[in-house]
Amino acid sequence: MNVNIPATDMPRVVVIGCGFGGMELVKKLRHASVQVVLLDRNNYHNFQPLLYQVATGALEPDSIVYPIRKMFKGQKNFIYRYCEVTGIVPERNEVLTNIGAISYDFLVIATGSQTNFFGNKDFEKASMQIKSIPSALNLRSYIFQNFEKALLMNSTYEKEELMNVVVVGGGPTGVEVSGAIAELKMHVLPSDYPELDFRSMKIYLIEAAPNLLTGMSAESAEKARKYLEEMDVHVWLNAPVEKYEDGKIYFGKGQSIHAETLIWAAGVSGTALPGLQEAAVAKNQRINVNRWNKVEGYENIFAIGDVALMVTEDTPRGHPMVAPVAMQQAHLLARNLQRIMAKEKPVDFVYKNKGAMATVGRNRAVVDLPKFSFQGWFAWMVWLFVHLMSLAGHRNRVVTFFTWVWNYFTYDQSLRLIIRPFWKEPRKKKGDAPPATAGNEAPGMKSAPQTAAVNIPPQGSVPPPEQAPIPETRPMPQNPQMTPPASPDMPGQQMPPAANIPPGEQPQGGIQPNQQLPGSNLPPTA
């Protein structure tokens, strides 16, 4: 396989990732005397701030993505390759990919962030994420699959477990997805599933910090909490999660919630690539850079956006991992690359914070500007306008605008579709008993799968179906001297004679009526 990138006399700038930073950098290098090579494992740019609306059925996936090749159509110095980057070899100025090695004169790492589970494998395995289009579609399918499954359950506990939703993390993503699911509960789901009692459905938002929306003003954080509680979302603060076991999330001081849907929005980490020296990578997988976004220890490798950790007196923990930081760093780096090639001194990066915002739901949002804050309907309109205009492509803006208008006036999010079902590994609960056999099952044979009860409510009086005649059976001759035949599956062994069971008693083994399963919390069988 050959990457087939044309040779050129111009310096080659390889950009890894087409997030907000990578996209802006390529645009700003449009007229520079360089060859720009963009590498990404997706052939589209993804507008992550609206992923939660895809996950909750408010928007179609193609409304928030834009094809990379169409985005840079007509840019003569641009080349794109669809590939997975596996590492870097700085000694040879090469990027390793699954389609081959690509050489560079300047390398820009803009790989963004990934979900941070803080080393907890149980939560990583059990929870759902909202970091990409596939993960958002998986969450959407999983939520509605659970409601379909709840219709088949007999016990209230099992129904609640499938209907309950727990969101871990009180940042913008956690607040926004909690509010979106609460609106589904209020306006959409009861009409779709009239057989379920949505008064028993609980939505929980769990945050380890003392307030929501860390990084925003205390006024906005408190207002967001009040908005969520008005929408019947149970907000738990100062409650770090501890474990997920037996279908329960344990958090705080001995608190627990039984829920099948667990959404993890508790934090992110960087996505450093293999090949960089140890000193260049921080503990949270962000890459240490200087004020020019140059990676520590290298002269021609740069990092921008979420993956870049620029520690200064004003930002001892680095800049916030948000889109405006990535875009501002990309703008400056495009200028600095041209200054470096012209043997001029680069300009230091200074972040201009233009504010922060988060939406909670219909007519509810919070906005922090540098000099003042505001909340409510006007803040919600500002949030809508900013996100609408930030979408790539005129078609996406038009489609998203009319979809929002339709949803606002009809209270109907018609995209609650299970197009690509998502199946998780079955969770084994404590006390689960092995499946009972049919009694005449030979060793090595598997019993037929058991089907769940189909709970269809009665629709008036329906006459019972006509029963088929029972075929005549002949009694077996009773001969006490008869020796039972050998089992075909157990050569050389004799089948034990049937036990003489007194009238009124049941044979041992199997599950009997009104019998409690050992080690199980289920009620006796009927």
Summarize this structure as a short list of keywords or feature phrases:
18% strand; EC 1.6.5.9; four-stranded parallel beta sheet; FAD/NAD(P)-binding domain; 526 residues; alpha/beta; transit peptide; FAD/NAD-binding_dom; single chain; NADH:ubiquinone reductase (non-electrogenic); FAD
Report on this model:
This protein is 25% helix and 18% strand. Residues 431-451 and 460-526 have low confidence and may be disordered. The strands form 8 sheets. A 5-stranded parallel β-sheet has the order 5-2-1-9-20, covered by helices on one side. Among the domains are: 12-41 and 83-116 and 269-342, FAD/NAD(P)-binding domain (3-Layer(bba) Sandwich), CATH 3.50.50; 121-266, 3-Layer(bba) Sandwich (FAD/NAD(P)-binding domain), CATH 3.50.50. The protein is an alpha/beta fold and 526 residues long.
- The counted number of beta strands is 24
Compute the separation of the termini in Å: 64 Å
Classify the secondary structure makeup into a structural class: alpha/beta
- The whole-angstrom Rg is 30 Å
CATH class label of the domain at 121-266: Alpha Beta
Question: Percent of residues in helical segments?
Answer: 25-40%
What is the number of helical segments per DSSP (H or I, 4+ residues)?
11
Low-confidence stretches: 431-451, 460-526
Envelope shape: globular
Report the β-strand fraction as a percent range: 15-25%
What's the CATH topology name of the domain at 121-266? FAD/NAD(P)-binding domain
Query: Strand count, sense and closure of the main sheet?
Result: 5 strands, parallel
CATH architecture of the domain at 121-266: 3-Layer(bba) Sandwich
The mean pLDDT is 85
Question: Major sheet: order of its strands?
Answer: 5-2-1-9-20
